[in-house]
Amino acid sequence: MASYEFRLEDLARTRFAISPMWEVAASLRRLRDPAQAGIHLPWINELRGGRLKDVDLSAALRLAEPVGYMPDFLTPPPSTPLARFEDEVELVRRTTADQVRNDMRLFRKSHRIRGDLPAALHPFESSPTRAVKSLVRELERYWHIAIEPNWQRIRALLEADIAHRAKQLTEGGPAALFDDLHPAIRWHDPTLEVDVPFKGHVSNLRGRGLLLVPSAFAWPGPAVITEEHWQPTLIYPARAVATLWDTGGESTPAALANVIGRTRAALLAELEAPRSTTDVARLLNLTPGGASQHLTALRAAGLAAARREGRSVLYVRTPLADQLVAAGTDPL
């Protein structure tokens, strides 16, 4: 078990962030052990057929053991709410040799490695700077093939989780926020306890606050960063992550469908996370024009809100729509 000890200023400085680099690292764990991938099997199946044949993941997969410590230099805590992969991978590239060697000592200890490391990991002790640069080249290739094509969908899920958690914190304080993150996370004022599969560590936040990072691939349990060099960080499975790879329409609220029609009821169910018109069309097997018409109607009725994100407009249901969906959850 890991613990974080809070003071008043730590609660004031607790913040949320999204980390593409964490998703890369955590997804490697799912690839490493597909038997434990569970809800991510559709994504793994998409990658089969040699799509990753030109990517050398020998070192990355060895570092991303399914259980236990993964070197922190792979996942530097983000300093902005929505970090870019390009910025985070550059932080990894600039990791000092001393930091790499320190993390590899922790890796040895966590995984009880007394003799030689696996061959793919030898360079991280003998020539760490060169090893990290080589690792980063392969992770960039992996990102473009495995994660980037799905990033808009993943990011929308994570943003929806943050919006929900921020509302909980505002309305109910830290107890409402932390007690709902995950069954392995417990708030005992002024301490946050997290069940993790390694020897316990107590982190006194000392006014630094806690960084909360929702994750799609940190499933099924939370992870922590507690080493003194880093911003104290708690990574937890994002809300509704089980719906990430859904093809859409499976959980249409029956009662709501009787009032506004099955298509618009299904659309509102999908708008728990922000979606573009293209997303809605794909999920519900609609034409882009048809999806746009339904979204416009729901927005005019006060059931959907919209915001521009780069070149796309993302739609998400309003609090009124949340109530309507919750009131009619019996499946058809």
Order of helices and strands: EHEHHHHHHHHEEEEEEHHHHEEH
Biggest sheet, strands in spatial order?
3-4-1-5
Shape descriptor reads: globular
Poorly predicted spans: none
Residue-averaged pLDDT: 88
Going by helix content, strand content and strand pairing, the class is alpha/beta
End-to-end span in angstroms?
42 Å
How many structural domains are formed by the residues? 3
Q: Describe the main β-sheet briefly.
A: 4 strands, mixed
Q: Work out the helix count.
A: 14
Identify the quaternary structure here. Answer: single chain
Total count of strands: 10
The fraction of residues assigned to DSSP E strands is 5-15%
Over all CA atoms, what is the radius of gyration? 21 Å
Share of helix among residues? 40-55%
What does this structure look like?
This protein is an alpha/beta fold and 332 residues long. The protein folds into three domains: 2-15 and 154-240, no CATH class; 20-151, no CATH class; 246-327, Winged helix-like DNA-binding domain superfamily/Winged helix DNA-binding domain (Arc Repressor Mutant, subunit A), CATH 1.10.10.10. The chain is built from 14 helices and ten strands. It has helices at 8-13, 20-32, 41-47, 58-63, 85-93, 97-111, 123-126, 128-147, 151-178, 254-260, 262-270, 277-284, 288-300, 319-327, and strands spanning 2-5, 15-16, 185-188, 191-194, 201-204, 211-215, 223-225, 233-237, 304-309, 312-317.
